[in-house]
Amino acid sequence: MSRIVAAALFALAASAAAQDSVSTDSLAARRAKFAASLKYQTGDVQLHGGMATLRGVGGTYRFLDGEQAGKVLRAWGNPVKENPLGMLVPAEMSPVDSGAWAIVITYQDDGYVSDSGASRINYDSLLAQLQKSARDENPERKKQGYPTFEVVGWALPPRYDAQTKKLYWAEELSFDGDTAHTLNYKIRVLGRRGVLVLNAVSAMNQLPLVQEATPAALAMVEFNAGNRYADFVKGKDHMAAYGVGALIIGGIAAKAGLFKFLIPILLAAKKLIIVAVAAAAAFFRRVFGGKKKTA
C-alpha cells in the first residue's frame, strides 16, 4: 500500500510541477503580450487638451496617454473608474518588470491656489495632521474593505519653488499586510485654474532611484501660455478656497470644509494608485491568470 501511495503522490507532484510550469510560461507570455501592447509617446506631449506640456519626453521617461495609463493601473490591480491624464514610465523598464515604477499624472481643477503663505508653512505640523487623519480614518477604511495604513514620516520633506510654482515631497507609508513600506513621491504644479498632480509610485527602497529621476519630470512639466500661474486674472478667475499647505493634506476637502466626509474618499483614492512594487507579481497573477491556490 505504501508503494502505491508513494507512486500516487509522485504522480500528483509531477502533475502539479507540470501545471506550475505551464502556468508560469503562460503568465510570462501574457505579461510580454501586455507589455508589447503599450503605445508609448516621446517628444513634446500635450496634456489636457493643450493646457500643459511635457517637454522632451524620451530621455529619462516614456509617456503613456490616459487610456494606456488606465490600462496599466487596472492591470496593477487598481479599480480605476476614470483614466488619468497619462503616465511617465522610466525609459529603461516596462510596467510589467520586477521593480517597475511610474509617475501618474492627473489634474485638480479647483482654481488658482494662492501661495502667499507658502514660506510660513510648518511642515512638521502638517505631518502630524496627516498621521492623525490616517489613524482617525482607518476604522472607516477597514469597514469599506481597504487596508489600513500609517504615515511613517517624510521620506523627503516638502519643498516649494516660488519661481517655478512647483511643490514636491515624499511620504513613507506602511500598509497593513505589506512587509515593505511604500514610497509616494508627489509633485504639484500650480496653474491659472488648477493644479497638475504627479504621483510617483514605488517601493520605499527605491527612493534613491526615484529621487534621482524625479528632477527630470519636474523640469519637463509646465503649463502653456494662457494657463500659467502668472496668467491669473484677479476678479475674473476662480480662486481655490485653500492654499499650498492644503495640497499636502487634501485640498479637495479643504475647499468645501468637509474634511470629515471627504477625507476617507481621498485616502481611498490614494490607495488606488499607491502600489507596492513588491506586490506587482501578485497583481499580474490575479489579473492575467496564474497558479491557483490548492487545498
Structural notes for this entry:
The protein is built from 8 helices and 12 strands. With 295 residues, the chain is an alpha+beta fold. It has 2 domains: 2-36; 101-278, no CATH class. The strands form 3 sheets. The chain has a 7-stranded antiparallel β-sheet, with helices on both faces. A hairpin with a 4-residue loop joins strand 7 (149-161) and strand 8 (166-175). Helix 3 (123-143) packs across helix 7 (259-273). Mean pLDDT is 79; it is low at 1-12 and 251-295.
How confident overall, as mean pLDDT?
79
**Large-scale geometry:** globular
Give unreliable regions as ranges. Answer: 1-12, 251-295
Give the strand content: 25-35%
Helix/sheet category: alpha+beta
Give the H and E element order. Answer: HEEEHEEEHEEEEHEEHHHH
Largest sheet: 7 strands, antiparallel
Helix content: 25-40%
- Distance between the ends: 24 Å
- In total, the number of domains comes to 2
Which radius of gyration do the C-alpha atoms yield?
A: 22 Å
Arrangement of strands in the largest sheet: 3-4-5-10-9-8-7
Number of strands: 12
How would you describe this structure in keywords?
globular; 2 domains; alpha+beta; disordered C terminus; 295 residues; three-stranded antiparallel β-sheet
Task: Draw up the topology in text.
Elements: H1 2-37, E1 43-47, E2 52-57, E3 61-65, H2 66-75, E4 86-90, E5 102-108, E6 112-114, H3 123-143, E7 149-161, E8 166-175, E9 182-190, E10 195-203, H4 207-220, E11 221-223, E12 239-243, H5 244-249, H6 251-256, H7 259-273, H8 280-288
Parallel strand pairs: 6-12
Antiparallel strand pairs: 1-2, 2-11, 3-4, 4-5, 5-10, 7-8, 8-9, 9-10
Helix pairs in contact: 3-7
